[in-house]
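#lab-general

N.A. 3:47 PM
ok so I finally got the sequence cleaned up, no stray characters, all 158 residues accounted for. can someone with queue access submit it? mine expired

B.Y. 3:52 PM
send it over

N.A. 3:53 PM
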Amino acid sequence: MQKYDFFFSLATLLYICAVIRFYIEDINFNLLSKRDVASWLKTVAGAEGKQVGAVAVVFCSDDYLLQMNRRYLQHDYYTDILTFDYTEGRTLGGDLFISIDTVRANSARYKQLFEKELLRVILHGILHLCGYADATPAQQKAMRALEDKYLAMRLKPN
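B.Y. 4:20 PM
back already:
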C-alpha cells in the first residue's frame, strides 16, 4: 500500500476555506451568477494584496437596511450598502448588506444597467473590507476609480 503525505500551506488552506456566500432577507431576488461574482471578488481581493476569508453578501429591502442602519450605526436614513468589517490582517471577513430597492433606484437614476450597479455596490463593500474609506471627497474619488477599474475587468467583452 502506497503512503501519501499531504501538506497544505496556510495559504492553500485559506484558499480552500475562502468563501463568499450570498443570502436573501425579506425580498424576492436571485443573483444568477453567484460563482462568477465570487470568483471575480476573490480576484479583486488578490489584486489588492488580500485574500478572502468568510464574506457574506446579504440582499435585502430598503426597510430592512434602514432598520439595521438605525440599530447598529444610529443613522436614520436609507443607503445602498452597510459593510460590517471583520477583516484580520490580509484575510477579508465581513458582512455586506445590500438594499436591492436602492440599487434598483440608483441604476435608474444614474442610467446604468441594474447588474452593473449591483456589481458596483458589492465591489464597494469589498473595497471597504480591503481598507478603503469614502468619508472625504478625495477618498470617494479614489474609491470610484478603483470601482471603475475592477468593473471594467469584470465587464470587459471576451
